[in-house]
Design a protein that fits this description.
There is one protein chain. The protein is about 65% helix and about 0% strand. By secondary structure, the chain is mainly α. It has a domain of about 160 residues.
C-alpha cells in the first residue's frame, strides 16, 4: 500500500510540474491539452484500480476490475474535464487575488488525476474481494470495514445515482457512442476571446427542443457556468464558451469537448497578461 501511495504522490507531483510547464508556454495547442489530460486522467484511473485490487489476487476479478475502472474513466472523461477546469478556475481566482499571478494547469492536471483515481477505485472496488482479514484497528476503521468486502452497497448506490447522469453527458447523441470520444487535433482553430454576458445554456434549453441526454448535458453546463469566478482565465473561458455555444446550440458531446479545448486555447494568453482583469 505504501508503494502505491508513493507512486500516486509521484504521479501527482509530475502532473503539477507538467502543469507549470503548460502555464509557462506562450501559446497552447489542442494536442498539448489532449495528451496532458489523457495521461493524467488515465494514470489516475489505473492507480485507483490497483489500489482497489491490491489484496485480491484473482486474475478474473482483476480483469473485471480493470474493465470497470476503464469504463468509469470513459464515462466520466468529459464531465471530469469540465469539473477539473472549474476547480482550476477557483485556484486561479484565489492565487490571482492573493499573489497577483496566474496558476491554472498545475491544479487542472492534479484534479484530473485525483478525480479519476477516485472513480477508478470505485469501478474496481465494486468487484474486488480481498483475501486478507478485515481491518481491526487504525484510523477511519468503520469506513475501511465498510469498503472491505462485497457487496459494497454504498458503491453500488453511488453508481446508480452518478452513472446515468455522467453517461448522458458523455453520450448525448448517437454519434457519441464510440470507444473514445476525443483525440489530438492540431487543426482545431483558436477563437478570439469573448467576454461573458449571460448563461448560454439556459438560453439554448429555452429555445430548442432536446432529447433527454442533450438536455442533461445542457442543464449540467447551465448549473456550472455561473460557478466559474470572474478572473482573467476564468472570464475568458466563460465568454468564449458562451459565444461558441450560441453559435452551435444543438451539438454532440464531442462538439462540446472541442469547444472547451477552444476556450482553453483562447484563454491561455491571459496567463501572461499582467493587466488582465
Amino acid at each position: 500500500m505504501k508503494l502505491l501511495f508513493g507512486l500516486g504522490a509521484l504521479i501527482a507531483l509530475t502532473c503539477v510540474a507538467w502543469g507549470f510547464k503548460l502555464d509557462a508556454q506562450v501559446t497552447i495547442t489542442q494536442p498539448d491539452l489532449f495528451w496532458s489530460l489523457l495521461v493524467s486522467g488515465l494514470s489516475g484511473s489505473l492507480l485507483g484500480w490497483r489500489v482497489a485490487m491490491r489484496n485480491d489476487s484473482n486474475p478474473l476479478r482483476n480483469l473485471i476490475g480493470l474493465v470497470g475502472s476503464l469504463v468509469a474513466w470513459r464515462v466520466s472523461y468529459f464531465p471530469f474535464m469540465v469539473l477539473a477546469g472549474w476547480k482550476a478556475s477557483l485556484v486561479e481566482f484565489t492565487v490571482w487575488n492573493t499573489a497577483g499571478t496566474n496558476v491554472v494547469y498545475p491544479a487542472f492536471l492534479f484534479f484530473m488525476f485525483i478525480q479519476h483515481a477516485g472513480v477508478g477505485f470505485i469501478g474496481a472496488a465494486a468487484v474486488a474481494s480481498p483475501q486478507n482479514a478485515p481491518p481491526d484497528k487504525g484510523r477511519l476503521l468503520w469506513v475501511r470495514r465498510l469498503f472491505h468486502k462485497p457487496p459494497r452497497k454504498l458503491l453500488w448506490a453511488l453508481a446508480v445515482v452518478a452513472l446515468p447522469v455522467a453517461a448522458m453527458v458523455s453520450f448525448s447523441t448517437a454519434d457519441d457512442f464510440v470507444l473514445f470520444n476525443d483525440g489530438p487535433n492540431s487543426e482545431l482553430a483558436t477563437p478570439p476571446i469573448s467576454q461573458p454576458e449571460s448563461n448560454p445554456y439556459d438560453q439554448i434549453i429555452a429555445e430548442h427542443d432536446m432529447s433527454l441526454p442533450a438536455w442533461v448535458l445542457a442543464k449540467n453546463a447551465a448549473m456550472t457556468y455561473p460557478l466559474v469566478p470572474e478572473s482573467p482565465w476564468g472570464s475568458a473561458i466563460k465568454g468564449t464558451l458562451e459565444k461558441l455555444t450560441l453559435a452551435r446550440p444543438v451539438a454532440t458531446t464531442r462538439d462540446r469537448v472541442d469547444e472547451h479545448y477552444q476556450a482553453y486555447m483562447a484563454a491561455h494568453p491571459r496567463l501572461h497578461d499582467k493587466d488582465a482583469k
